[in-house]
């Protein structure tokens, strides 16, 4: 589907944000898609969930860094450390050795659990190093296994090794699209499993636990592959909807070239201010405001602040395509959410 989109690179940013928000929400982050868009539009003006928004923005940076580095570096332990460094830079957990594998024991379990009451204890550092070496060799030479099986096995094994003091879940989920892009299964990172894993969070953790305690790799792989099927279908439908929306929107704006240009910009940044439009169009404030007004009159933009100054406009029809996949208000996790220590 990405091959038939008029400019797929315009839409990749939204898919990456989609994954970043959901993957971070699995770990308890409260930021929504709109929080992140507001933060990106004006870091100084982002009032809601600023810390959480920074974590999601870091996830986006880590993904983009990994994709760029794959042009010259294979998916390796070195690259995973680089990705982790980007992920943890300047946010909660940044004091916990970003970009470095742990040298102390960690564990997984309910909030405030101890090592003795943990649900799972990953290998100690000396065994972790050997396990990571085996994982890297597997990534480089998986034999004749299908790539999706490699992705499922690698993700489960990475999460079991838990090589960082924090951020293991997010790095492990980043590993999946990076593997698919490295092996040219995907030309662009438009397939993400976090929407599926978030919707089936309890089973996600149960399946990983069953691998560790009972060696039930088949159960995990069935769960993983079912997710690939569901998310692939959803991504394809979203791409079709984007194409239809773009054509319908352009027809409403055919008389204003600046508004049409601004429309394409909205597919990458669907939250907009007049100043941002002025900068993108390289035009006067009045011209930018006129283009926004036409988009608003066409029913494509909605002003969200109710203010006379510092107004924000939202491309509702486009954001709705992503919000229907669980990107609305995020509920807080309960006591049973696995936590890293």
Automatic annotation (TrEMBL):
Pfam families cross-referenced by the UniProt entry: Fic, Fic_N
Database matches in PROSITE patterns: FIDO
Alphabetized InterPro entries for the sequence: Fic/DOC_N, Fido, Fido-like_dom_sf, Fido_containing, SoFic-like
Active site: 162
Domain spans labelled Fido: 75-226
Highest taxon above the source species: Bacteria
GO MF terms, alphabetically ordered: ATP binding
Amino acids binding ATP: 27, 162, 166-173, 204-205
Keyword annotations from UniProtKB, A to Z: ATP-binding, Nucleotide-binding
Listed name of the protein: Fido domain-containing protein
């Amino acid at each position: 589907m990405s091959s038939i989109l008029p400019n797929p690179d315009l839409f990749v940013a939204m898919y990456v944000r989609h994954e970043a928000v959901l993957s971070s929400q699995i770990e308890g982050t409260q930021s929504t898609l709109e929080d992140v868009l507001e933060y990106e539009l004006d870091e100084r003006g982002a009032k809601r969930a600023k810390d959480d928004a920074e974590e999601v923005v870091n996830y986006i940076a880590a993904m983009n860094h990994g994709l760029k580095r794959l042009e010259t570096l294979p998916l390796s332990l070195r690259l995973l450390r680089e990705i982790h460094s980007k992920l943890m830079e300047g946010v909660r957990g940044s004091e916990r050795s970003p970009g470095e594998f742990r040298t102390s024991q960690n564990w997984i379990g309910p909030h405030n659990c101890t090592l003795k009451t943990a649900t799972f204890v990953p290998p100690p550092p000396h065994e972790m190093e050997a396990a990571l070496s085996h994982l890297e060799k597997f990534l480089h030479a998986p034999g004749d296994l299908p790539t999706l099986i490699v992705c499922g096995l690698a993700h489960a094994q990475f999460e079991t090794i838990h090589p960082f003091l924090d951020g293991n879940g997010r790095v492990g989920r980043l590993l999946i699209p990076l593997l698919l892009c490295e092996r040219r299964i995907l030309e662009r990172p438009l397939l993400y499993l976090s929407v599926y894993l978030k919707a089936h969070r309890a089973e996600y953790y149960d399946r990983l636990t069953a691998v560790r305690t009972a060696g039930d790799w088949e159960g995990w792989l069935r769960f993983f592959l079912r997710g690939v099927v569901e998310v692939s279908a959803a991504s394809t439908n979203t791409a079709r909807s984007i194409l239809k929306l773009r054509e319908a929107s352009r027809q409403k704006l055919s008389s204003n070239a600046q508004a049409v240009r601004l429309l394409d910009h909205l597919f990458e940044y669907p939250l907009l201010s007049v100043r941002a439009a002025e900068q993108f169009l390289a035009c006067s404030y009045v011209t930018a405001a006129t283009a926004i007004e036409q988009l608003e009159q066409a029913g494509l933009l909605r002003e969200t602040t109710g203010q006379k100054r510092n107004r924000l406009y939202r491309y509702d029809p486009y954001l709705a395509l992503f919000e229907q996949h669980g990107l609305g208000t995020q509920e807080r996790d309960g006591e049973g959410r696995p936590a890293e220590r």
